[in-house]
């Protein structure tokens, strides 16, 4: 047992070890040119974690490993729950039906496309396909992290999925504003914001792509994006039920053993609580502090994930996850454009 009387000291050492790397990742993310590229500490955390895993990993005492695993599993679930303090139900109401429609359609279609194409076209395993699909369809690295415990996937598969999010999310972050300014995207700033929020991968990348146009575009982009983030909870619950059915059939059980990811349910509860607390001015500093602490925990989970990922695993995955992510990125950019145009014309902005 990781927290037994005999092992707790070593487990805490492992957690502290991950925390030190996390502090470094957050400090690096504050460097001006990295901040300008909107690279989140989560991404930096997994990179330095992987660097350690492939250089000095053999030097860590094996007794510390449970602490690293605790950071990538249990701390992760708690961090996803706290992520609810970033979202309110009022945000969903602000973007109206058009924003909600774009978020729902793009999340659902991208996730199904990623799962199906990953398994059927690119012959990837189920877990890698779903992790890549969740990262592209919902909210990037945070979605990959949230999906991993539902699948009980191997850490390197999550790292591969995060890598695809970083690549194509970064490309989208620069491409969308360039296309808009060049007049290729035939939409007003309000619609552009919905388009960005409904199709770009990471929250930070949405902020950058929306902020490049400014005003209502930036506001709508962030609000629609947070609506997409909110949808991670029902997605994980449905996924948990589907995975449970698959396991039951594979094991030849008569009844279905449904495994509900309760941290996703609590995520919704926390978002609901935050929807009331957001109106209390005196609590805003507290909520801001919780969000900073949550970023630290998410970065810890990402760093621990990196520490369990070797380059050999990436080589095994090959280019297929990248090709899958490219397919989803094309759908998000092209399909998302027409879905946004339809939603705005049908529901208005």
Task: Give a description of the structure.
This protein has one domain. It is built from 17 helices and no strands. The radius of gyration is 20 Å and the shape is globular. 49% of the residues are buried. It is mainly α and 349 residues long.
Q: Measured on Cα atoms, how large is the radius of gyration?
A: 20 Å
* Order of helical and strand elements: HHHHHHHHHHHHHHHHH
Q: Sheet bearing the most strands, described?
A: none
Q: What's the end-to-end separation, in Å?
A: 55 Å
Which runs of at least 5 residues are low in confidence (pLDDT < 50)? none
Q: How many helical stretches?
A: 17
- How many beta-strand elements? 0
What attributes does this structure have?
349 residues, mainly alpha, 17 helices, 77% helix
Question: What is the compact description of this entry?
Answer:
With 349 residues, the protein is mainly α. It has 17 helices and no strands. The longest helix is centred in the first third of the chain and has 32 residues, at 89-120.
């Amino acid at each position: 047992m990781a927290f037994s009387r005999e092992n707790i000291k070593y487990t805490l050492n492992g957690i502290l070890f991950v925390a030190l790397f996390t502090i470094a990742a957050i400090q690096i993310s504050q460097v001006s040119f990295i901040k300008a590229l909107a690279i989140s500490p989560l991404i930096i955390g997994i990179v330095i974690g992987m660097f350690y895993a492939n250089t000095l990993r053999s030097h860590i005492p094996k007794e510390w490993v449970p602490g690293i695993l605790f950071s990538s599993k249990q701390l992760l679930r708690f961090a996803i729950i706290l992520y609810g303090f970033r979202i309110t139900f009022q945000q969903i109401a602000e973007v109206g039906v058009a924003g909600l429609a774009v978020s729902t359609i793009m999340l659902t279609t991208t996730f199904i496309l990623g799962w199906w194409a990953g398994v059927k076209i690119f012959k990837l395993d189920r877990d890698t396909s779903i992790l890549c699909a969740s990262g592209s369809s919902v909210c990037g690295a945070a979605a990959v992290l949230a999906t991993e415990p539902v699948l009980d996937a191997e850490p390197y598969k999550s790292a591969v999925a995060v890598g695809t999010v970083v690549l194509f999310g970064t490309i989208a972050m620069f491409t969308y504003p360039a296309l808009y300014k060049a007049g290729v995207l035939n939409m007003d700033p309000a619609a552009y914001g919905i388009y960005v929020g409904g199709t770009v991968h990471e929250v930070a990348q949405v902020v950058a792509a929306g902020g490049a146009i400014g005003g209502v575009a930036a506001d709508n982009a962030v609000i629609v994006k947070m609506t997409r983030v909110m949808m991670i909870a029902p997605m994980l619950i449905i996924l948990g039920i589907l995975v449970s059915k698959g396991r039951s059939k594979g094991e030849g059980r008569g009844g279905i053993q449904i495994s509900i990811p309760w941290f996703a349910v609590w995520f919704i509860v926390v978002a609901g609580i935050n929807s009331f607390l957001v109106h209390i001015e005196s609590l805003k500093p507290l909520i801001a502090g919780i969000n900073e602490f949550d970023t630290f925990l998410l970065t810890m989970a990402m760093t621990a994930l990196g520490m369990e990922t070797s380059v050999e695993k990436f080589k095994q995955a090959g280019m297929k996850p990248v090709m899958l992510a490219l397919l989803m990125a094309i759908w998000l950019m092209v399909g998302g454009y027409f879905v946004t145009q339809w939603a705005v014309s049908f529901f208005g902005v």
